[in-house]
Amino acid sequence: MYNKPQKLVAEFIGTFALVFFGVGAIIADQFLRSNANGPSAYGWLGIALAQGLAIGILVTSLGHISGGHFNPAVTIGFWVTRKFSTFDTLAYWAVQVAGAIVAAYLLRKLPFDAWSSVQLGTPDLASGISRTTGMIFEAVMTFFLVFVVFATAVDERGAFNKIAGFAIGLTVTMGVLLGGPFTGAALNPARAFGPALAANHWTNHGVYWIGPLAGGVAAGWLYDLLFLPKA
């Protein structure tokens, strides 16, 4: 049985990895675009794969310790279904945000300024996308992420020991492939907050809290209500 400090450290590491590799891929893509002698940029496909692989690998590696949330929107799904106390929820949120902040500031130390042209990978809305539309996109994409977490990692009839990490990672990849060009596809308030703080870029930041948290609440509540077996 893992104690609470071990769970919190696992959540810090997992969220750190998501931001370090996911945001790092955005910066690397910009670096390739700006380097005339470098290879062609790999675009949203590479960025989506980096984020999906990071989540998939870390959920597989650390899910048995902390549950592999790495995302306040996942944790709030556990809170709304009374699987987490308010204290545990806030503790998870604190270390998730801390992991994202540390990763973002570390990326800012990279020895070139490609990070500045993309605001350190801070998600933002594309031209023509309103805040309401952005929140809806983020909520729907996060809904499916949290729904898959409940289906594979919470439901005892699911496949946690087999494909949970794979399924969750692919869901993140799917979300980034669709939402990346429109909203940046954070699907995760911590993923948005860490780079925003390090880059001091707060434009439309509320979208990336309201949308994902609403999606997480809806997914957790719906799966718990309709599909989880009751004692």
Describe, in plain words, how this protein is organized in 3D.
The protein has 231 residues and is mostly helical. The chain has a single domain (4-226), classed as Glycerol uptake facilitator protein (Up-down Bundle). It has helices at residues 4-34, 43-66, 72-80, 86-108, 114-117, 131-154, 164-183, 189-199, 207-226. The relative contact order is 0.19.
Label the structural class.
mainly alpha
Q: Summarize the biggest pleated sheet.
A: none
Number of strands: 0
Strand content: under 5%
Helix and strand topology:
Elements lengths: L3 H31 L8 H24 L5 H9 L5 H23 L5 H4 L13 H24 L9 H20 L5 H11 L7 H20 L5
In short:
This protein is an all-alpha fold.
Name its key features.
mainly alpha, 9 helices, 231 residues, Glycerol uptake facilitator protein, single chain
